[in-house]
Amino acid sequence: MKIYFYFCFLLPSFLFLNTDGTLIFLYTHFRHGARGPKKLNDSYLDIVGEKWTSLAELTGVGERMHYLLGLRNRKKYIEQEGFLSQKFDPHQMLIFTTGKNRTMISCYSQLQGLYPQRANLGEELTPQQEANAYPPILDELEEKDPDIEQAIKELNGSALPYRMMLAPARMVNDKEVKMSIHNIGECEKKTDDLKKANEKIKELKEEVAKFNKAYGEKFNKYFKKEKPEFSLKEIRNTCNDFLADYTEDRELKEFKEKTGLDFKVLKTDCLNFIKTYYYYSYYGDEERLLAKIECSKMMREFLFYMKRRLDADMTEIDEDSDYKNYSIPRWILTSGHDSTVSANLVLLIKALGLDMATKFQVPKYASQLALEIRRNSEKGQSYSDYYIVGYFDNNELFNMKVDEFINKMEKEIWTDQQVDEYCGFYNDDKTNNLYKTLMIVFICLCAAFLVSTIVLGVLLYKSKHSDSNTLNQKFDIGTDSV
Question: Domain for residue 5, yes or no?
């Protein structure tokens, strides 16, 4: 496929740290881009009074975020490293997405950056929306990437410049694949109890009090409650809706007039509050149970594909022959949510013994967790010849030998049976096995009852027949005497 972007400058080296060695396998798990609020009233207004046409759908800003993220990943993994072919090859990639519109469209928006196909223009963005449409991996860098800036100029205000990239994406159905990448609804009772317990943690209560002290009175000029105190969930919901509106460059005229707030400051404070909320409410317990429940299955799938890729890399002579199979992909892309990305991040932090306070980050719109598996030698002989580097946006999380990584992860992640036991799941196999067992027991009881009935009948018959013979014998003896 023709390449539509010619890059005239080298990408700043700080974007591509730790790229020594040959890239063998790649896993990226990213949050969807900017979206609308998840709850609206009957008039389709959000908490801060802005009108939307639909619930939680990806916006033009969100599309642009993932297009730029895809463009960045193309530069790094296709243009610079030659990790994938220039043209899309479905055998080289496995794409997973949850069954939500915003994750599916995020996935396809990113594919337009990875494999561009020139065609139509997308939704037009305002200048402020363009400023907000940077994914965190490109935001607040020491210097701008000239190639990305040139691409933005060529977009000329459109959210996406290309037609939809056709690629197979595997939808994850909650009922069919429990706890894979979304969500924990089937384990809701247990996880709700866990979060309620975590919400009692002192630090989280202090954060709520701190936010109320700073914003309670100002918020209440708009919400008009009896007391200017907002609960944990009220603050979270208000911040989430505000961030959705702010990212979309909504005026929030009435909200601003009544509260007099500086929205730039509120944005920062809301992001910090949401980070604290996740840090304690979701993962405040020492065992980080929510992360284990939600992402153990996903991590086992990652380890499975990684091992197959490494085994193929160590044994195949033709370096491309082992890729022509869906079970040995080079790259797995997973389109998820803030809850799934954060859970995956926390599971890694827990398993690898990383510092939660410094490594945990709240997944902003279009944040990306990336795991790169590389080797320095010409040919790997064992897993110890490979190393894995983990990134969250521009931040390196860890760098270690693959065999060490596998050992630590396998000790921490739960099996399906452990998740089933904790959540009270009963899968079809277990149900069928129980049904078969009950049927066997029922048949055995019926057979035993039938046999018992026959035996009792025979014994009763013999008993009656025996009494009759005795009387006959007595009668015969008496006749002889007479």
Answer: no
